[in-house]
Design a protein that fits this description.
Blueprint: H1 2-9, H2 22-34, H3 38-47, H4 56-89, E1 94-97, H5 98-102, E2 118-122, H6 126-136, E3 146-148, E4 157-160, H7 169-179, E5 188-190, E6 195-197, H8 200-217, H9 222-233, H10 240-249, H11 253-265, H12 280-293, H13 308-320, H14 324-354
Parallel strand pairs: 2-4
Antiparallel strand pairs: 1-2, 3-4, 5-6
Length: 355
């Protein structure tokens, strides 16, 4: 019923298939929160005929959540613009990724998309980003693709020297060659927001890789799926043969086909907007995982009480037959990243101590 409510929100149906009880509405509300789509779903609920809406008490509780989301969105938009301007003033080209960047694709629903942290792709590579971070808000909190940037106390900011990654280091190099083909001249400046975002051609692959990575190693919610819906819905430049080639090179075809099935059958995305064929069987598997895990896996109770190592092992085995490449490479990548991070942190600490 949550998926039906999403379809109402997106304008693909005008009512639910049946009237829900108070208990069922409470369940839909709780699931919408776990999937981080409560804000946008309020819009769908408001479009329902009066006899299908929930109780007044639940409506006003839900409305309060949506107002809070709108307030936070306005605040995070300003903070994102502030970070972007600071980078620009330092002579660095940057674009706001994911969250506040993707929200610009939502149209009238933009203010109701639940925001997260601020992710910024900064061109120039690791050294340039590191120098900027250490000269403004020094930190050794670095990972393979990003620095934490402690500019605000109430919102997490990540400056990405790599916009994303894959754990298969061979595929990661292929991915790097692809995203390095995008320069600042292709960024799109959103005047009313005060920051730039990547073009839709970038998000067509980038958002898919982001969803894929979180699906495999943390869990994703319907918010990320809705993000991708709006990316493809607004994409007027897709060349399917070229896109299919990129998907194949990055071993993303199977996951992309599953996502196309979900977007077409559950979100009513039109056929001509799909970037590849659909895989119904894999789509059922991926959708079941999404509904089970919720946003960032916070609703997943299957591995509750297990140690981190055991949970990772169980989860990896669960996904091994579906996406073997990333799962098999994970132990290698974890060791590689630990060594990479240790060396970078050692140099940063030495630099900060000397400074």
């Amino acid at each position: 019923m949550l998926l039906e409510l999403i379809q109402v929100t997106l304008g693909h149906r005008d009512r639910l298939s049946r009237t829900l009880s108070s208990k069922e509405w409470q369940d839909v509300y709780e699931k919408a929160q776990k999937q981080s789509v409560a804000g946008v779903c309020l819009q769908g609920m408001s479009r329902l005929p009066k006899e299908q809406r929930p109780s007044e008490d639940l409506y006003w509780e839900w409305y309060g959540v949506a107002v809070q989301i709108q307030y936070i969105n306005a605040k995070v938009d300003k903070q994102a613009a502030s970070v972007w301007r600071k980078l620009k003033d330092a002579g660095l080209d940057a674009a706001i990724l994911k969250g506040q960047g993707i929200a610009t694709e939502y149209g009238e629903l933009a203010s109701l998309r639940q925001s997260g942290d601020i992710d910024v792709w900064v061109l120039g590579g690791y050294r340039k980003v590191c120098d900027f971070v250490q000269s403004t808000f020094p930190t050794d909190d670095v990972a393979y693709h990003r620095f934490h940037y402690n500019m605000f106390e109430d919102i997490e900011v990540e400056l990405h020297h790599r916009p994303t990654l894959m754990r298969n280091l061979i595929d990661d190099r292929k991915l790097a060659r692809w995203y390095n083909g995008f320069g600042a001249d292709r960024f799109v400046y959103i005047e009313e927001k005060g920051f730039a975002v990547p073009p839709v051609e970038f998000n067509r692959i980038f958002i898919l890789t982001h969803i894929y990575r979180h699906f495999l190693f943390e869990g994703i919610g319907l918010r990320q799926v809705m993000d991708y819906y709006f990316v493809l819905k607004n994409d007027k430049t897709c060349k399917k043969e070229e896109t299919a080639k990129i998907l194949k090179e990055l071993r993303l075809t199977r996951f992309a086909e599953a996502m196309m099935w979900i977007l077409h059958t559950q979100f009513d995305l039109e056929n001509d907007k799909l970037i590849c064929d659909m895989n119904e069987k894999e789509g059922h598997f991926v959708l079941a995982e999404i509904l089970q895990t919720g946003n960032f896996g916070r609703a997943d109770t299957r591995f509750k009480g297990m140690s981190t190592l055991r949970r990772m092992s169980k989860h990896g085995i669960h996904l091994l037959l579906h996406y073997p490449s990333e799962v098999i490479w994970t132990p290698i990548w974890l060791v590689y990243h630990k060594i990479w991070r240790y060396n970078k942190q050692r140099r940063i600490r030495k630099y900060l101590k000397k400074d």
